[in-house]
Amino acid sequence: MISGRALTFEIGKDVYEPSDDSFLLAGCVSKFASGRVLDMGTGCGIQAIIAAQKSNSIVAADISKPALECAKKNAAANGVAGKIEFRESNLFSNFLPNEKFDTIIFNPPYLPTADEEKTSGILDAAWNGGRDGRKIIDAFLNQFPPYLSDSGKLLLLHCHLADTDKTIRLLEHNSFKVEILDKTLAGNEALCVIKAVK
Q: Into which CATH architecture does domain 2-197 fall?
């Protein structure tokens, strides 16, 4: 169980437990999330639930059924279940082409992972970023732009292990204005939250 800011979270066995990356992103979500919100890779639901303190229309998506069940329970425990739609999806695979969001939040799996380091459980999807840490990040960056409203913003947690500068270059190449909202060191990981707007 994790408690803080009058919110309580139960973490299931097969669900990513919020850590420094989650808390860094949560601080930015509480300040900047607005309008219709998408929390991609919701995990235990921490970002969606924090966004629900200000927004009434949130989609919390995850590839993991155990994560979605955990997030639903946490939303109910924190009194915001009515504001959040939970959706099983591999990135945007279960989204309609015309869906738009004012804020898209993503804490992607970013750890560089060799084939021999992969685990067989569903929790592997929460941290396994592929050989260079960019497998899911690059797929997301290719898919998200059509789902962002004209005045929308992306709040993306990033780690230097997955080449933060490359992500910034890709966003800028696609005509996004990029800003680092916050950053911290967590052990050997240099973490930051990237805000990107059209």
A: 3-Layer(aba) Sandwich (3.40)
Residue indicated by tokens 């930051």: 192
pLDDT of residue 15: 87
pLDDT tens, position by position, 132-150? 779 999 999 999 999 999 9
Count of beta carbons in the 10 Å neighbourhood of residue 179: 12
d(CA 147, CA 104): 9
Please report, for the chain, the start and end positions of each structural domain, with discontinuous segments joined by +.
Answer: 2-197
How far is it, in rounded angstroms, from Cα 165 to Cα 171? Answer: 10
Write the DSSP string, 90-128.
STTTTS-TT--EEEEEE----B---GGG--SSTTHHHHB
What does the pLDDT look like over 10-22, one tens digit per residue?
Answer: 897 888 788 899 9
Of the pLDDT bands very low, low, confident and very high (cuts 50, 70, 90), residue 5 is low
3-state secondary structure of 177: strand
Contact yes or no for 30/50 (Cβ under 8 A): yes
* DSSP letter assigned to residue 152: E
User: Structure pTM?
Assistant: 0.90
d(CA 3, CA 179): 30
